[in-house]
Amino acid sequence: MEYLDAANLQSRELNKLLKQKLQKNKELKLKNPHSLHNIGIGLEMGEVIIEGNTGFYAGGFLNGANLTIEANAGWYTGDNMMAGEITIKKNAGCNLAVYQSGGTIVVHGNVGSRLGYGMKGGTTIVCGSAGMWAGQMILGGRLIVLGEVGREVGESMYKGVIYLKDKAVEAKLGGNVFIDDLNKEEIKEINQLFSHYGINEEASKLQALRPLTSGRHQYELFEIDLQAEEARKYSSKSLEELL
Amino acid sequence: MKRKKAKDVQRGIWNKETLSAIDNKASSGKHRIRGCGSTRAMPNFDDIVVLPSQLTRMSIDTYREKCDTRTTLGSRSAKKPLVIETPIMISGMSYGALSKEAKIALAKATAKTGTVISNGEGGLLKEELQNSYRQSIQILPSRFGFSKDNIDAADMLEFLVGIGAKPGLSGHLMGEKITEEIAEFRQLPVGIDLHSHPRHGDALGADDMVVKMDQIRQLTNDEVPIFMKIAAGRVKDDVKIAAKVGVDGIIIDGAQGGTGAAPVMASDHLGIPTMPALVQAVKTLEEANLKEEVDIIISGGIKDGADLAKAIAMGADAVAIGTAAMVAMGCRVCLQCHLGRCGFGIGTQDKKQRENLDIDQAAQKVANFIKGMTNEAVLLAKAAGKTKLKNLEREDLRAINTEASAVTGIPLIGTDYVFSESFGYF
Question: Any idea which UniProt keywords this protein has (chain A) (predicted)?
Fold first, then answer.
């Protein structure tokens, strides 16, 4: 397998080289990425194994290539991804899979907050835990989190589904979602995914989070909450005194 | 002296509008949503006049001599800058807020006049792309219908941060307009009230945007000009940051900007008007020595050739029109866009009402309007002695009242005084 040393390269030069080399080689190994931003954006084919940490936007707009990050990934990894695969062996930062519209992302460690913000399609599997606001305002696709999730999970999701193993999820739900069981087909599909990516887990242990879209005005949006009764304690006189 | 009867007394601030606003809140407990943006009176380009050429310079013949309006945008770092025949772009109005017919008509109008149309929030309509002369693609926080394919189709990209009608808020599209067609296009459930994403999920701060900008440049092979659309607020800071992020130009949307649906509160009380925003943007870029590099497109209530000429004289490179183009198609600014019942077939998704808009006729009217507006601006420019529209300069302007003078730094008519910080040419 051919090695490419990124130690002295800017992301621009690196991406050009990657594109050129992947025309000939099917596989490439990338040494010394040193958390460079924008690694492997928009790649359409081939397989790249990155032996180190990546910075922001690794695999952004990925369009068919296969990316493996052997260490940690920075923020916005897999943003606007369209097709292909990203595997992250350790942890990922915030906003993983933001606006993802296709392909698959697998994270073996934990991820930060806002996982899959505005996601439109594809699949993202997080084997560890995810931070707060996971799956906020998603328009499609599926998110799978096998560890714990943070608060406000699935806030205002329009479409799509979030599968969770966290048993305490009820206390962390965002607005406009409900907890549901998986149907047989979903269990089958997800078990297939697990075996394909070598994840030792069973889909029937998961719960599904789905959007409430039963009609207009069902969206629970921010409402002003004026608590007049609560405020009485700040009054200098009690009600009895006044009367 | 006869005493006035109570019914004849003017009610001052307690006018019909105030009463209606209070009634509305009293019954709903919510803020009011309305289309078309703000209806408030604000300082605007009508408070400025252009100085004609007399003995100091020679006038250019209105009827026989040429005045160039061709405009190049985004040449700071894009390899393929956008060249349009007149500095009037059609600003981003979404398919969803507007009907498919209206979008096609606007696109056809750009083909007739050689200018650019922006796609707006709802994704890129195939028919719009096929019919437009040049296509601008907005990158919005919601990314409805957005993908790499859109970037490939773009002649210009707009990284949208905010719009003048509701700066700091996200897009609204009321349930009446989310028909099956629109829902499919945007990947949404049918008939929900949409309050779209408020922030870019893939660039939370200005420092991230620097990296994001590099990403988009790489994806476009550095060919496509990238603009940033910001609502006018802290213009000085925003323009500096946008320039540092590395954009080719900035689209500044003033508080008079229109929209399909916005809280009245946001339209009327958020952001500063178009003209002062332009002045501050130009000043800021000049101070940073970037005026020649970073282009400015100004929008928000631009309605005729005078606005265009004065905006260009103040330092804009182009203007963007929205409401004015809709009015050219037949819109009468009824402020009810959000209800989706537009009888002219413009701001509606209702099949029957959409039939009311004749696409070719509407396209011709918008094209005529853009041509007429260009004509008006050229008339002023020639009278001021210019053979190129962009040669208009601040020195050719005067303010007709102290407010406009104070806001713009342009001298008051009949004086050489500037009633604030000067614009820097005396």
Answer: Coiled coil
